[in-house]
Amino acid sequence: MSRLSKKSPSVCTDMPLDNTDICSKLHLLKQILTSCFGPTGRLKQVHNNIGGHVVTTSASSVLLSSVSSSQPFINLIKTSILNHVSRFSDCGLFAAILCLSLIEQIKKSALKESVAIRVNNYLLALCTSYLQREDCGCRVKLDFCSTQNLITLARSVISSKPACVLTEPETFHISKLAVQAFLLTVPCSSPGIVSFGRIVTVPVEGHSVLSSEVLPGLLVEMPDGLSEEDKLLNPLSVVLFSASLAGDISELGDGVIEAHPDVDTDSQILGQLLELGRQVINDEVKLFMCQKVIHPVLQQYLRSHGVIVVERLGIALMEPLTQLTGAQPVATLHTTIPPKTYGKVRDLCIKHFGSKTMLHLFPLGESAICTMILCHRNQTMLNELKVVCQTAEHVLRLTLREPFALVGGGCTEINLAAYVRHKSKSEVPETASVLMCSQTEYLLGVELFCCALESAARALEHDGGSSLIDLTHAHRWMLPADAIKETMEESLGFCGCGLVQSSPSKKWIYLSTKYSDFCPSSVFRDTRVQPRVLDSFTAKLSALQVAVETANLALDVKYIIQDMN
Amino acid sequence: MPPLGHLHMEHVLQAVGVLEAVILRSFGPEGGQVLFTRDTGQVLLSRSGTRILTALHLEHPFARMVVECVWKHSSATGDGSKTFILLLASLLRLIHAAASKGSNVSHSYSSTKAAEAATARHLADKLLAFGLKELDELIATGVVPYGGCISWEDFTVEAQTSSLTNNLCVQKLLRSFFHTRCGYTHCDFSSHLTCELLSHWNFKNQLPSFSLQLVSDYFPALHTPVSGFPVRSSRLIEGQVIHRDFATPPLKTDHQPVKAVVLTGSLQPTLLSTGDVLELGYRGRMKEERSILHFSSWMESSLQGVIAKLQTLGVCVLLSAVKQSAAVLALATQAEMCLVECVSEDELSLFSQLSGTTPIWDCSMIESEHVATLAFCRPIQLGAHRYKKHTSITIKPCSLIICAPGEGQIEQYACALQDAIRMLLRTWEPMLAAATTTSKSTLQSHKGASLHTDSLTEQTPYRSIAIQPIQKPGCVLSAGGLFELLLHYALLQHGHSCSVSPDLNIDASVSQLLANALLSVPQKIYSHSPKFPNDSHPFSLGDKLSKVSELDLGLESVSCKYQLLLAVLQCVASLLKVDAVLPTHTALHTQSRRLARTSWEDTEDEGEG
């Protein structure tokens, strides 16, 4: 009874978007995320008040999960974005910036929330159908015959995370490795159900990034008592145990076991283990691996018969190992090991990476397992590099489902905005009546949506330059802050994604100025001109949808109830 | 709260008024979402009245009583919790006005109040009596003719040809339901999805309510929440999803059919159960059969025997409710069987229901009747999790994948879907409010027994308690306050006809009161739209009807509305029976305990005493 306490009543907030505190928090969040966006984004150091670990990052996944707010409204947006990132790994900042600017734009205008939601919904459908179209001006079909586009895609991901601190050649090297590793995990000739292989990452600290490499097969911890001179017959027979071989008593149930002092149970079990060892040696197994611990006597026995023993593999390596060797894990100790559970390894060799020495297992046939060794100068950068490589792998894998990419560098957003502006101008009365609003409301909604898209593109610029749009293809161009008006054409060079080159016939205007709507013409594909920046199609499309849906949801919230218990 | 509360109408009105103010935020076509955080920090979204009210953690005894009533009502019909509060508030206001007018004789303050309370109580009782007796017939004559009727064929036949125009009635009904529960954005999408789901779960030779009940009962096992995707990625997939990954490598080949067995216990035999003692070393002498090795090898060999038995039966999929040992995993892998561990009870019970097999506890007793035949069995990647999915060969089940950017939203959609099915069930099977509790208990017993029900064709017990239906099953009406308007006029007419005959003239005032209270609902719905005729001066019925049909807000169920009215009347009656709140103090805390309990019986005692 003494622990009985009264439940405190909930705290309620009416009309959260009219609340100045919430609005200023939203604005702050938007500013933080905007300043992180893109290759020239600024890094953020996150550290808590009790002197914990300091994180340096510009990635939305790290940033959003470490920033906590007492305001459920902020958390609502935060979790939406984080969930998107956990599924697609990419475009988290884009989604967050788009969502927040959409909310801010609509809040600033006099547009009714319910109308804005309907208009946003309609325009989102317009955007997604445009992006799926053949003649979409910002979509590039990926050609799997050449690795160039894939490398560009990987590089866009890697270069957008400045916390990795990579030089230009290093970025290129890592991009190449990411694509190489990705290609190795795609099985070439397996009929029936295709299952992807796996990239096992081994981080090595203190080495140059350029010494990172991708190896087919797997690396395991170097076992004791193996010298480089040992020559083994190839291929090697492998046995893989998933049960502990430490000599512990197997589980018989919940009852009590009473051992008489005369009975030496340990030696009986050890005898059984050695029996197992004898069978393995008779079956000419050369590599003996166990997920858990192996009894030292058994280890010694096996080694003395020329068997390489690897213990404590851990659960994470078990699945790749079964895939690599074709062995089936064994967990029975009393019955003879069925011959079909043995696997094979073509060869093994010893590899040195800095302080680490590891045993490299080569697959017998074709195998979709590979190891990526990532090197970087210090721990923080290495951690970020690991995250970035996983993102790149995920993004590359997504291309197998939808073999497209979207042009990067802000061109997609600008192009989309131009298209929406143009498309929505036709059939205004009909659309407005379907959306149950007046024509002015509808046009205002369209303008707000496009402005939000453009502000996401403008967020890429951090050095005081200005963004321009060309009036033929509707791509984004960057004008450095110190450029002179007269030489504008030269200083522009290529557009944000590198697909369009500046020419005297082109007209540009500043993004902030109003322009009369036009239909963006798709870029004539010259095969010599390849885009320099590509974004994942699947991830960006989903990010767009998540951003608009989350904004709609936030606009629809009329009341907040906070349980204070 | 006053230290010793003689309760007056004002207090009740005040409490309900506060609730009404909260509910109005999410009521009607312009209403929005309510965001709330649980004490666990979880963020939830809702437009459901019940959800919002329970989240408030109210202290006021009256408010708690009302919330309890709303909760009871909505768990039966799945709908109408917001209208409940609005109707309740407007009824109480009108009763208060009528009571204070009736007892206008000048007395001392307290006696006036007492007289007022007595009149109000009297009125509320009469309202309830009237509602139970007359309302049914009034609705049948005054409302039902204006409505349509959904038929079960709407679901089944047309959804298969996937023409969305034909099952428009059900679509519209669901559409307006989702509009009130999840907002405008995805109401079309959700109603399509629900229709599709229900059309897949249609059984031949079965009443529609059977499949509705089945989907409603097994909804937790039938849907998979996937966060991080846009809502529009929600879809139906063929087969049942088991929300666990394979513990052993999944089947390599895609050969069909696949044979499966459900296990509820460990496959490995237990040698020692709790309390048993195994003595090693018999009388100091070492005997071969008393060594520990003997026992562990016996265990392994018997396990091998079980696996071999399963192999002879052709089983290659094992679904286990518990975690299996490493030896089981290894042996199953070697026997090319795939194993799924820790499958939830709901899923296994649905599996048994669909496949018509029984789970095994003791593995030595495996017979062919335990073996289910599946059309396929494969892993499926949904978001971050890899699950197993399969389908049975006889029935074509399908599961629902609910996607949304955040977990709060997914939960909202899942709740709305479940309530939508409940609402459809009530629409289809109108029943008396009194029968609600009985049916609920039988439902539970049905669910528990389903593990052992052999086939779907068997008549399940809850079907037997069908009460003589008052209205035709599946009666629907245009949404947006049409029901309230029609009933308003029907009540006025009824009152008029009653007042002609002198002995029944009390009835007239009651029906007049109810009629006026009903008007508050359409008033609130159109409070944002200036086009709607204001009800301060009378308009013709046709005028308003044309307005309602013009806005086209979809359809709503007549039987749900009827039950709602009865529930509100009951709530009013019981609220007004309470005359005092006695705050008591426990020894440890100065916390007030409420004497006015929330259940029906207690409040009645209170009123008499």
TrEMBL record, chain A:
<dbReference type="GO" id="GO:0070121">
    <property type="term" value="P:Kupffer's vesicle development"/>
</dbReference>
<dbReference type="GO" id="GO:0051877">
    <property type="term" value="P:pigment granule aggregation in cell center"/>
</dbReference>
<dbReference type="GO" id="GO:0043010">
    <property type="term" value="P:camera-type eye development"/>
</dbReference>
<dbReference type="GO" id="GO:0048839">
    <property type="term" value="P:inner ear development"/>
</dbReference>
<dbReference type="GO" id="GO:0001947">
    <property type="term" value="P:heart looping"/>
</dbReference>
<dbReference type="GO" id="GO:1902636">
    <property type="term" value="C:kinociliary basal body"/>
</dbReference>
<dbReference type="InterPro" id="IPR027409">
    <property type="entry name" value="GroEL-like_apical_dom_sf"/>
</dbReference>
<dbReference type="Pfam" id="PF00118">
    <property type="entry name" value="Cpn60_TCP1"/>
</dbReference>
<dbReference type="GO" id="GO:0051082">
    <property type="term" value="F:unfolded protein binding"/>
</dbReference>
<protein>
    <submittedName>
        <fullName>MKKS centrosomal shuttling protein</fullName>
    </submittedName>
</protein>
<dbReference type="GO" id="GO:0060027">
    <property type="term" value="P:convergent extension involved in gastrulation"/>
</dbReference>
<dbReference type="InterPro" id="IPR027413">
    <property type="entry name" value="GROEL-like_equatorial_sf"/>
</dbReference>
<dbReference type="GO" id="GO:0032402">
    <property type="term" value="P:melanosome transport"/>
</dbReference>
<dbReference type="InterPro" id="IPR002423">
    <property type="entry name" value="Cpn60/GroEL/TCP-1"/>
</dbReference>
<dbReference type="GO" id="GO:0005524">
    <property type="term" value="F:ATP binding"/>
</dbReference>
<dbReference type="GO" id="GO:0006457">
    <property type="term" value="P:protein folding"/>
</dbReference>
<dbReference type="GO" id="GO:0005737">
    <property type="term" value="C:cytoplasm"/>
</dbReference>
<dbReference type="InterPro" id="IPR027410">
    <property type="entry name" value="TCP-1-like_intermed_sf"/>
</dbReference>
<dbReference type="GO" id="GO:0051131">
    <property type="term" value="P:chaperone-mediated protein complex assembly"/>
</dbReference>
<dbReference type="InterPro" id="IPR028790">
    <property type="entry name" value="MKKS"/>
</dbReference>
<dbReference type="GO" id="GO:0005634">
    <property type="term" value="C:nucleus"/>
</dbReference>
<dbReference type="GO" id="GO:0060271">
    <property type="term" value="P:cilium assembly"/>
</dbReference>
Automatic annotation (TrEMBL), chain B:
<dbReference type="InterPro" id="IPR017998">
    <property type="entry name" value="Chaperone_TCP-1"/>
</dbReference>
<protein>
    <submittedName>
        <fullName>Bardet-Biedl syndrome 10 protein homolog</fullName>
    </submittedName>
</protein>
<comment type="similarity">
    <text>Belongs to the TCP-1 chaperonin family.</text>
</comment>
<dbReference type="InterPro" id="IPR027409">
    <property type="entry name" value="GroEL-like_apical_dom_sf"/>
</dbReference>
<dbReference type="InterPro" id="IPR042619">
    <property type="entry name" value="BBS10"/>
</dbReference>
<dbReference type="GO" id="GO:0140662">
    <property type="term" value="F:ATP-dependent protein folding chaperone"/>
</dbReference>
<dbReference type="Pfam" id="PF00118">
    <property type="entry name" value="Cpn60_TCP1"/>
</dbReference>
<dbReference type="GO" id="GO:0005524">
    <property type="term" value="F:ATP binding"/>
</dbReference>
<keyword id="KW-0143">Chaperone</keyword>
<dbReference type="InterPro" id="IPR027410">
    <property type="entry name" value="TCP-1-like_intermed_sf"/>
</dbReference>
<keyword id="KW-0067">ATP-binding</keyword>
<dbReference type="GO" id="GO:0051131">
    <property type="term" value="P:chaperone-mediated protein complex assembly"/>
</dbReference>
<keyword id="KW-0547">Nucleotide-binding</keyword>
<dbReference type="InterPro" id="IPR002423">
    <property type="entry name" value="Cpn60/GroEL/TCP-1"/>
</dbReference>
<dbReference type="InterPro" id="IPR027413">
    <property type="entry name" value="GROEL-like_equatorial_sf"/>
</dbReference>
